[in-house]
Fold each of these.
Amino acid sequence: MSHFRKAITFAILFTTTLALSVSSIAPARAGDPLYPDIVEQISHIQIQNEHKREMLRFSTIHINVGDGPLQIRGGGQVAQCTIDGVSYPQCTIATQEILDSSGNIVQTNPAGTALFHPQHNHWHQNAVVNFELRPGSLEGKAIATGQKVTFCMIDNDKTDLVQKHNKRTYFECNSELQGISVGWSDSYHQSTPGQELDITGAPEGVYYLTHYADPENHWLETNENNNFAWVKLLLSRKGANPKMTILDRSPCSGAACGSPSNP
Ligand SMILES: [Ca+2]
Ligand SMILES: [Ca+2]
């Protein structure tokens, strides 16, 4: 897994209701583009002491609740690239492929850069999600920003929300083709390197842990306004170790996002 710092400024997009994110009611015709819709879920929030640092760890799930798969192709012309000051020996242009109801590619869209990690034999997509911890309110200035911005996207878990496409399609990180099928999710457990924010010494109080999927808008989606997810937390320091209590969360979580087994 590759890590590098990235500061992204973006307008806060409040999560809209799920009813808005599941779009077209009319049956799609052959040739009509079927767009994905990625939403974020945050779970398994916990503070761990690691080498005298207080790390807020969390699991992250990207869920496709759209009309078509999120399909990303890379691996064509490979060359060195530098992103945010970090050099990568093998990079390729990533392209989103939009399919129709017959599975034909009917549209393509530039989707940033894919990076090859020889030690993992994985292609990773860049700028998939941005993590932050903001004090006081959603508009608070971030006191911690995640370093991980690359993911290998595959069909990890089938959600309960969208049943119309059950076929698992994307399951190999070493493929040049990655994606998330409709109704499937790609999850990253809190123990995965990069699934953390350093909150060492943060004062007691209310914080918002935020996730912003597709922060550079690489992917065309049916709903671009539901990619922002948050959890409202209370940090207390009564005992020997700090504790985070969940006070509230954005609408798309748990069963509402079709993943009741990952509340
Ligand atoms: Ca979306
Ligand atoms: Ca997008």
Note: The two ends are 25 Å apart (CA to CA).
Amino acid sequence: MKTKYYSYNIGELPEGCKLCVQGRKLVLFVTGLCSRNCFYCPISDEKKNRDVVYANEWPIKNSDDMIKEAELTEAKGAGFTGGDPLVKLDRTLSYVKLLKKRFGKKFHIHLYTSLDLVDEKTLKKLYDAGLDEIRFHPDIYNKRLWPKIMLARKFSWDFGVEIPAIPNTEKHLLISLRVRLIFLTLMNWSFLMHLLISLQGSDLFVRISFPMGLRALTSLRKSC
Ligand code: SF4
């Protein structure tokens, strides 16, 4: 089904996206540091590999600046990104707690991370801090760490996978996804080509804007 957000989908939009598509989420760039170096990394030279913090593209010096930006834009939630926010875990935890304290439990927070620094202890800290949703960006060329995705099942939040829709990678990715899709609450194929797949409960949601995504959608739909 075509959506009014220039994409296609099956099922309900994930919570983490509902406010994003309305521009109601604060985009918090926690750090430009990341343990990976993906060739398709979309981070600008001003941010990449630099420990800088931005709220809605404004450089911020401290948490007060972050709260002020959220207030000024009347944000109803936040998306934590980077870099990998887990490289600066204490900062990430403190910002999640501060936003929840200031704006309340309903202020929806989702976070993007690679799998490299994920372990159960870290996920528990994020969950206890109040994080509502986590999206993993695994290495599409090396599946060694992919089993870590399953650690997220131990907590009562939405979780999923986000990967770039790179031509010629769909076949082996779809095989991996079919195996794991049943466990995911959300999957997001994005960056330049933007394919977003999400599972919430038994509903499959797919959002795409790239031919590879259309093929993936067709294939996944058949197998789910
Ligand atoms: S994991 Fe994300 S932030 Fe890190 S290098 Fe890859 S694309 Fe960039």
Note: Residues 178-183, 189-210 have pLDDT under 50 and may be disordered.
